[in-house]
Design brief:
By secondary structure, the protein is α/β, with parallel strands linked by helices. It contains 3 helices and 9 strands; from the N terminus they run αββββββαβαββ.
């Protein structure tokens, strides 16, 4: 199955790529690498939820938000490449989790994005990763994630 077929089998329709929320490029190609700017859990132009993990949001909710970010990332990649079959592998994911004092479940939150990428790409979806707890994120977002993908055939 193609990545698009796997996404459809999960009942997911890739959204229109979210517009940048500032003065930056949402995606930049350098050689055979695609760098995606930090993405927030946005749906239809609005944050799905706001707040901090460990203060009103739990790890399960955070993981679902991270999955939403990964879906948006694939929408951006598909919009740029035309099809996700050109993705050779996910190289790196860096996630920032707005964390209340004492919250240490950042890795569990980022699993929402990581596990989704493996569902779609199989072993090439496995990646290096950092999960970082931070005090605040733009627009009171609970998570922000950057992605690096290797591409081929284009």
């Amino acid at each position: 199955m193609t990545p698009e077929e796997k996404i459809a089998a999960l009942g997911i329709i890739l959204p229109e790529p979210p517009a940048p929320l500032g003065a930056y490029l949402p995606i930049l190609r350098s050689g055979n690498l695609l760098f995606l700017s930090g993405l927030l859990p946005v749906r239809e132009g609005r944050l799905v939820k706001t707040g901090k993990l460990g203060a009103g949001l739990d790890e399960r909710e955070g993981a679902e938000l991270a999955r939403t970010v990964a879906i948006n990332a694939l929408a951006i990649v598909k919009g740029y490449l035309g099809e996700l079959g050109h993705v050779k592998r996910c190289v790196k994911v860096t996630g920032y989790v707005a964390s209340a004092s004492g919250f240490t479940g950042q890795a569990a939150v980022l699993n929402g994005a990581s596990e989704f990428l493996v569902q779609i790409f199989g072993d090439p979806g496995r990646h290096a990763r950092a999960a970082v707890g931070v005090a605040e994120l733009p627009m009171d977002s609970p998570v922000e994630i950057e992605f690096i993908f290797e591409i081929s055939g284009i």
